[in-house]
Every structure is written in structure tokens, then in C-alpha cells.
Design brief:
This protein has 156 residues and is an alpha+beta fold. The chain contains 5 helices and 8 strands; from the N terminus they run ααββαβββαβββα. The N and C termini lie far apart (32 Å). InterPro entries: NTF2-like_dom_sf, SnoaL-like.
Length: 156
């Protein structure tokens, strides 16, 4: 059983490492047989090999996580964190347009995707994330001018 501080620290560390773009560094937080759903309801990614591909695409999109306030469950295993995610519209944005999540921007190269998500993790006794569920839907996706997005990042 982990302390609340350890659980919420895992979530904060996930965001910090995501912002570095270092995929191997990210994977160090996860058990080898991790189960990861992003978004919940999508086909789960199982293990480091599948998760590596997901994190590589996130790094290529220059994903930047802005964490909210984490909450730990009393069971010593689960914690949640709201996150505002910003990433370059390209290369992933056109897939969201194709699925009807948003309209194509006028200038894709100067546009960021924003997602308001909530991440739920389950940690193992070694303090690694063994399962992660990322909740978001159509109303949580938006577009932002890249200049405005960079200003928000700088203000943090």
C-alpha cells in the first residue's frame, strides 16, 4: 500500500516526464505489463512495447501536460488527476477531424490541440503504474492558436 503522497507524486511525475519528451524516461514509471487506455473505451495498450508507440507519438506532437490537483483514493493503490493537454495539431489532429471531434483549423501548423482529461491510475506495491485510464470525449477537445498556447506554458 502506497501513501497518498507517493500516489499523487506518480501523477505529477508522469506530467513532468511527458513534458520532457523522453519516452524511455516516461516508461520507467510503468510496470512492464501495464494496461493503458487512452481514451477509456479504446483498445487497451498492454506492456511497454505498445505504450512506447503511444508515448512516441505524444513526443512527436510536442505534448505538454498542465496538471491540476491530484486526488488519492484511501486504498493506497488509486489516484486521479485532471490535466490540460496541449499538443501540436499535426500529426494527430486530422484523425480527430475525420472522426468528427472538431473542425479543421485554417492554419494547422500554427494550431495546438487541447484536451481536458482526467487520468486514473492504479499502482503496484513497487510504486509503478500498473494500469492507467485516460477519460476524455468530444466536448473535451479544442483548438488553440500556438502563440496563445506557448504563452500559457510560459506563465506556469
Amino acid at each position: 500500500m502506497l501513501t497518498d503522497a507517493k500516489l499523487t507524486g506518480l501523477l505529477a511525475e508522469h506530467c513532468r516526464r511527458m513534458n520532457t519528451g523522453d519516452v524511455d524516461y516516461m516508461l520507467e514509471l510503468y510496470s512492464r505489463d501495464v494496461r493503458f487506455e487512452d481514451p477509456v473505451g479504446a483498445r487497451p495498450m498492454i506492456g511497454h512495447d505498445e505504450l512506447r508507440g503511444h508515448f512516441t507519438r505524444a513526443a512527436e506532437s510536442e505534448t505538454y501536460d498542465i496538471p491540476g490537483v491530484p486526488v488519492a483514493a484511501g486504498d493506497g493503490r488509486h489516484a486521479m488527476l485532471p490535466v490540460t493537454v496541449q499538443m501540436n495539431y499535426l500529426p494527430l489532429g486530422p484523425a480527430l477531424v475525420a472522426h468528427g471531434f472538431l473542425d479543421a483549423p485554417r492554419n494547422p501548423r500554427r494550431t495546438l490541440l487541447t484536451l481536458n482529461v482526467v487520468g486514473l491510475i492504479r499502482a503496484n506495491d513497487e510504486g509503478l503504474i500498473e494500469a492507467c485510464w485516460i477519460y476524455w470525449g468530444r466536448t473535451d477537445v479544442g483548438l488553440l492558436d500556438a502563440t496563445a498556447g506557448m504563452a500559457l506554458r510560459a506563465a506556469r
